[in-house]
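dumping this here before i forget
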Amino acid sequence: MAIDAGERSQVTLRAARRRRLPTALAGTALVAGVGYRLLLLLTDTPPTNSDEATMGLAALHIGQGQGFPIWFYGQAYMGTLEAYLAAPLVALTGPSTLALRLPTLALYAVFALLAWRLTLRLTGDHWYALLVTVLLAFGSDRIVKNQLIAGGGYPEMNAAGVALALLAYDLAAGRPGRRPARWTGWGFLAGLMVWVDPLVLPYVVGTGVVLVAFRWRELMGRAGALLGLGALVGAAPLLVDSLVTGRSPLTAVLAASGAGQSTSWAERLSGGLVLGPALGMGFCSPSACAGWQLWWSAVLPLLLLAATVIAWRQLREYRQPASVPNGGRPLTDAVAAALSLALVAAAVATLASYAISSAAGRSPVESSRYLSCLLISLPVLLWPAWRAARRRSPGLPGPARTAAIGVLAGTLGTAVVGTGTTIAAVPTYRANEAQHAELVATLRTLDVRHVYGDYWTCNRLTFASAEEIVCAVVNDDLSPGHDRYPAYRRAVAAATSPTWVAPDGSPLAARLDEQVRTGTLTLSHIPGWRLYLPRG
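structure:
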């Protein structure tokens, strides 16, 4: 029986009404996620460090016109995009952690919004898109560190990765409108991420393969030229530096990865596949992961496998001939399936490259940040569990639905616990920041302008004081340490009577205490810090 225009209009209206509630709730979750992170920033959480301060010093120098660094100071890789984004705020308000992090907060908002849109493109399910948005609104210690600390690369990678996937979907599916801008935009983001941080390259390659598979003819013409032009512009800082200096960023990345350092395969696999996924995707407490929180690492391979099977079946249906009833899947479904496979493959490549690295064995708690890009794949990772829970996977036994509901509930519950432990740590972080502020104020009162300190003290102190206090790095044995900005060491070395600064209970403090006992230095103590001033 034919359906007239009025009935079709009613059906469309009812469908729009059904979408209205989950869309409104997703918007509420997005606002809550941004608000939660803003409150963290206003309460000195997550704690800052000298790496973030190094990016802040780059922003300070850019705002003052003193220099326009291409790479993170002290190395020839990891682009300084965060410094350029923060430079106007730092120039306007002066050096502060908040000024550095407001751009990263905006990047989180972009990431969460685009992840919601990507989920809708891939699944068409507004309630599932709401679930993904709610999960991204939560933030454990590791997650908010990755998303908010302007320490180089991590805040922008997820936003760019999801944007690449969305652009790839729209271009491959043939969505009309602004196609030249989309081709250029995809190329620009891809080139930009090659400059910023190579960790997101599996997602650049995966989404690029989808474009080639579905639009290779279009890429042979104007679209390919626009994509290439965009990529050249995005990667221009890297290319210019390589041409001028002859340095290879790839060589620098490999040297910094610790490839030559020895760790056992058991340590690498344990850190990379057991501890890493649970920490990297936000299911653990600050700097620790309880045994029960590791359940996600065991479930993740099963979700990756299930997502692969679902997407592959959907892609095969598209390839069926037109004689098959209903003519097979439409192009949009095929693109969604191919992009889902690409996101799964990128997640597997990210996990594999991390698991074989020495960092996974040496420092899994801290280096789990290398898995932050896995959140880009979240829209496809939980889709099998959602389908099974909603009885949309025919042929599954009853226990499978129960297990799927358990996975979804466990994911939400563990994310809530991780977020709660982060909130519980806020008073400690605020107290530490207050002690550091007192250190800066005390040094200013004493008219100290040149100091020696350890790596995690120096650039943080220099940035917080707007370079009024200049610090040079020393090792625990008082030998020269790793100065990312050599001019600071030259300034301190030229000073007549520099002061030494060390955190309470540190090996450096113990070594300097020996000089106090010999009468070389005098000790001044404030909460959390020990100041060693030259005698006389």
